[in-house]
Amino acid sequence: NTSALSLDWSQNGQKIYAGFKNCFKVFDVQTLTEDMHYDMKKCLKNGKKMNGHTPLGGLVSCIASQPLGKLVSFGSYSGGLCLSNQNSGKAACVMQDVFPGGVTGMKWSSDGVYLVCGGRKSKKLYCFDVRRYDLANKSIKPVYEFDRVCDTNQRIDFNILDNRWVLSGDTSGSGKIYTFDIQTGDVVEVVATGIK
Length: 196
Fold this sequence. Notes:
Layout: E1 6-9, E2 15-19, E3 23-28, E4 33-39, E5 44-45, E6 48-49, E7 60-65, E8 71-76, E9 81-85, E10 91-95, E11 103-108, E12 114-119, E13 124-129, E14 142-147, E15 158-161, E16 165-168, E17 176-181, E18 187-192
């Protein structure tokens, strides 16, 4: 048996999403049983082939369920990102090499419109607007890219406040705090706190 590498609750609190190597599992809280097993590398759901899906391998490094919505997002250390239906587990969108060093963080805005992702050794945070989903290609492109210093393998966390402001630190050692606006793409403020 293997321990989960990442966890998140469904928005209704009835399921737990757990990330493993090459797969994610969904557990029902009331029955404490595995509800669904999705093998991302072989594109198998509960052992059955899911045609038309792009394989996505690697360790599932982070999970975030969409507030007020139907999606759950998974990031992997192989650099891929997957958006799946919270109920069926069916992948709506799979993107390879979003962050070549691996996806290390993702957060949804409280209205479930924006998904912000960060990666290992990546100087960018990507902001996706799920309303701009390309149905024909089953893909979504970032609407904004935010620059920050991230030169190590550390997981540099960030958060979204008031459904608008992304706050992030960096690895420069100068104690900088970045504030980005996810509705306009602007860098609002970079504050050097003096904390080292």
